[in-house]
From TrEMBL:
<keyword id="KW-0129">CBS domain</keyword>
<dbReference type="InterPro" id="IPR051257">
    <property type="entry name" value="Diverse_CBS-Domain"/>
</dbReference>
<feature type="domain" description="CBS">
    <location>
        <begin position="83"/>
        <end position="140"/>
    </location>
</feature>
<dbReference type="InterPro" id="IPR036086">
    <property type="entry name" value="ParB/Sulfiredoxin_sf"/>
</dbReference>
<dbReference type="InterPro" id="IPR003115">
    <property type="entry name" value="ParB_N"/>
</dbReference>
<dbReference type="InterPro" id="IPR000644">
    <property type="entry name" value="CBS_dom"/>
</dbReference>
<dbReference type="Pfam" id="PF00571">
    <property type="entry name" value="CBS"/>
</dbReference>
<dbReference type="InterPro" id="IPR046342">
    <property type="entry name" value="CBS_dom_sf"/>
</dbReference>
<feature type="domain" description="CBS">
    <location>
        <begin position="23"/>
        <end position="82"/>
    </location>
</feature>
<protein>
    <recommendedName>
        <fullName>CBS domain-containing protein</fullName>
    </recommendedName>
</protein>
Amino acid sequence: MTDDRDATLTPMEFDEISVDAYMRTDVDTVGPEAWVTDVVDRLTAGARYTGLPVVDGDDHLLGFVGAIDLLEVYGDVHVHEVMTRELIVVGPEMSVKDAARVIFRTGHQFLPVVDEDDRLLGMFSNGDAVRSQIERTTPSKVESTRELLERTHDVEVPVSERDVTVSELVPTQRSVYADELEGRRYELENGLAEPLIVVDYGYETLLVDGHHRALAAARAGIDRMHAHVLTVSPDDVPDLGLREMARLGGLRSLDDVEVDDYVRHPLIRKTDPDAHDAA
């Protein structure tokens, strides 16, 4: 994404987005004459797709070699001798929605994306499908927030996209849940985190949506996050409700946000499986 893009995509537009908008193009590949020992070394080092697409010198997709193809394979064996040749592939113009259906119905975790000549263009994974849905829901949240601000304060609120500094965010939510923080940490580590929604209000940046994500980022030492930014001038709106909410709550930074670990709530307990054993 580029900065300052207008965040007004409708759900219908997202339905029409194609696979090439979300596929990964930085895909590790292997040639058919490579030794399986090389594949084992690369898989052990942590290949993204638990295997490697097999391509020729012109990037034509010939097959795929994964861990299951290497079971009980010993000695000097070339990749083309063990690779899976019959693959389910998709074209770059297929809609994200249809590709996600293919992944769900076939049980595959990813799909190679090829052109009309079977040249490998990228890989589309179940993680990419999730990422597309995350980005699909965010604009509707942005629009709802913008409409609320414009209706409440009778002012036009422009929207842009850019990175914001996490440590400078002013929260508008008093508490977050500990278990959700763990989930947001996983999303951050795997590139699945939804952008924040913030209000640029003069010298302050108020956090509207994404308190769990922002606090998880702060704890992970991440100080820059992508955000949808709604801009409101203090000259136009001297009494911004969100700013008053933060002030009344004593919220000046993410350090003021409480973490609610309801699993440790004093009224929650575990039963004793031996307490009512028959005599």
